[in-house]
Amino acid sequence: MTEATQDKTTKSSSAGSRRPQRNTLIKMMALLVVVIMILIWAGHWLLHRLGHVSSDDARVSTHEITVSSRIAGRVTHFSLRRGDHLNKNQTVAKLYSKPERLKLRQLEAKQAAASARVDTEKMHLQVARKQTASGVKQAKATLATDQAKLKVAKAKLAQARDKAQRTQRLYKTNSASKQQRNTTRYTARARARAVNAAKKQVQFDKVAVANAKTGQLSRPPMHLTNAKIAKKRLKTLRDQLAAARAAVKHEQNRVHDLTVVSPINGVVDKRFINPSEYVSAGQPIVMMHAPKKVWIEAKIKETKIRSLKIGQPVNINVDARPNTQYSGHVKAIGKAATDQFNLLPPPNPSGNFTKITQRIPVRVAISHGPKAKLSPGMMVEVNINIDGDVNSGNASSSGT
Predict the structure, then answer these.
(1) In CATH, what class is 101-252?
(2) In terms of C-beta density within 10 A (0-12 exposed, 13-18 middle, 19 or more buried), how is residue 188 classed?
């Protein structure tokens, strides 16, 4: 064998021995990379577990509003379907309203008649007050005149009595005749009768003033409407008008209630009736919710609830929206376990007890993400950052 052949044989054997070593090194490096990645993932998972509270027992919640009619009636208009959007005060359903509208017209006519009676009585009261005031003024003027006449009569009586006394003294001294004495005496007596007549007239005038205040005039004899009585009658008519207005308002509300409207801006989730059905008072017509007023209701294990605080940031993963990012914060932490509200608690007739970790409801407010794309009942996974700043979630929250 030549030297060249021996060199080739030596080189091929050394190259063949290095190739397995290289493959082994590559495998060891790949294994090392895998181990490092597993360690990194395990470390990340451990840090996440230590700094977060997670739960896949969560779902989208909202206030489900049941729209119903306040009064009974037959449905004449109803065309809503699931998913229909309604604005606030938009018509949900209409009930048969012809009898109620006819009754409303009747009550409005009664109200108009009552209002007319009140207006008429107001005019009577104004006239009565004017006439009474005029009659009292006239009676007082007559009284003043007769009182003046009485003063004049009293003055004439005093004058006549003085003259009669002087004539009597002259008669005793024969300075006046008997006829003169008798004349002055008769004149004094006449003056006295005139004073008595004037006094009676003044008393009559005072009675006339009092009667005039009540609406009775003596000159000429007539009876006017008493202002006090007219005022009482006006008050009664006003009460009747108020009752008529209340009846009209009540019937207007009844007619208004025959058109059932949406209380919110929302979406129809379920319908309970069909057109032309007869509905009772309080019977549900549709169920709806406000798309922008939704939140997450998560059920957290009682062993982890001690780590939660109001305002902690939450990462939200919606199963139905995997490509949409949602986030929020802890809004409220329940004070009772969910099984406390079961209608039928689980029986334990055997006496055996199995301890089960209970769940506490936690409300998560959605701070970021399109709320309108969420439907009540959607399943959600939440990751609550228990090391996060409790104020960061509240600062960016839009409120739920």
Answers:
(1) mainly alpha
(2) buried
